[in-house]
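User: What would this chain look like folded?
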Amino acid sequence: MPVPEQVIPFYTYSPPEVNVAIPSDAPGTTLRFVPFAANDVLRYDNRPLVDKTLERDNIPALMRHFPNKSCPWLDGDWKSYIHPEGALYLYNTTRKTFTEAIIDETTFHLLAECVDGLYDMARAKLTSLEAEDIELVVQLWPTEGEITCQYYFVDHAARILFWLHDTNHETTVNIFSGLRGVDDPSHIRFALESEYWTHCERYPNHQMDRVKLLKELREVVMHASAEIITSDMSLSPFDADELSRILDLINHLQENAEEKDFPHSTCIIARFMQYFYRAKFFNFCGLPCARLDADKSVYEEDTGFHPLTTPFSLVFEAMLFWAPRAHLNNIRRVWVDECINTPRWKDFNTKLMAEWTGITIYSTVMLAVDVSFLAVPNMNISQSQSIGIIATYLSIIFITGSLIASVLLARQNQRYGFESAEKAAEFLSNLTGTFFGVRALATVHSLPYAMLMWGMIYFAIGLLYNVFKFTTTAMLASVVSGCVVVTVFISWFIWAAREIHIFKRLAKSVLSVTSGR
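Assistant: Here's the prediction, encoded as structure tokens.
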């Protein structure tokens, strides 16, 4: 399944606190109505298991009808439908009400009272309810002494969800996916429309104007394609290859656009629309503060004290050859405002894999060089106090550490790097949710490179020590001149690339500490 452009880790959902309570007909039982979201429908969780003891010895003769025995207690206007994914759900054609088929007969018989109660309240608050294109979704949580009826209404004309009661904090957080700064009603609409398309994907019974929807979807996809081709800061939920395949799907969908008997097309359209409208919500679309570049934050930068931005941390960063700074910038390009940009996430992990794979090769070569160097006749291993021997041992230790770290990070990246955006966001949230935050993750990513560099430095120290100790004056002069040339070239490259801004960073750090006091 494709993944949306920006995702914050979803919160675990449980039946929230109750908003309204009315007595039911059953003695001692309270019926409670609680708003919930389309994403919280329990379709993929706690699925029933197959009873392996059930079996048939034969297929009856002349068997030409195949009723579904999963819900034999269905009555009235309730009918069972099969989703294109295979899930079974129930729909009342008269009351325009959906519910999941993961219920028993006792729970099913409580549905009528819940639906009647909700529609009675809706008629009291909406005078034009019957004339509007509105559907209802309910989900029951029977417990001892009470029945929790979770619900939401669907307004197909406005393409939103709505409720008869105020949503509580937990439901609101689930709908907003924990996004901070949500207040403007026009912004909230994008979240509700995203939920609407989630509903249409899960319950594709509604007869939509597919021709018009396909035209709208085509316009959105073509604009996203043009943006991702011409800009590196595209907000597109998909990369160029995925957008091209979506356009191909749209062309195929147009062949059956006017057919009403196939829910598959509705599911496909609704799924893509949900991703695009979710992206609009995360990017604060339509507001003065809207995100226009994928790597730009919409929040004010945190300039408070952080333990990894002190002058002492600059020394630690210098010991790692300023590699954490580069990794921190790359992480912030994909983990903007604690949201994931999926195309950038994929590109980020591809580059990480290439870097760690290359470091693994370099570390293997350097390890072989170190071991071979110890076998040189001039290297007397019995003299363990020799500076050359000690430096070579340290080189082997750092090279081995670099090799182990790169292998472990590459394995972790293979497990989590190309997961869905939801799992990637949860993974990054767990890693960066510590005291040190995202900087700690950047430091971990830089360890293979830093340890490889220290391994090379210690090897050079061991090599030069033996050269200076055992060579003639002419050879010593040649080696020194060569070292000077190499050092000048490396220093010139570092200066030209501006990889090190130590004086500027020290000045900025001192000023921040002074102003903080």
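The two ends are 51 Å apart (CA to CA). If you want, I can go into more detail on any region.
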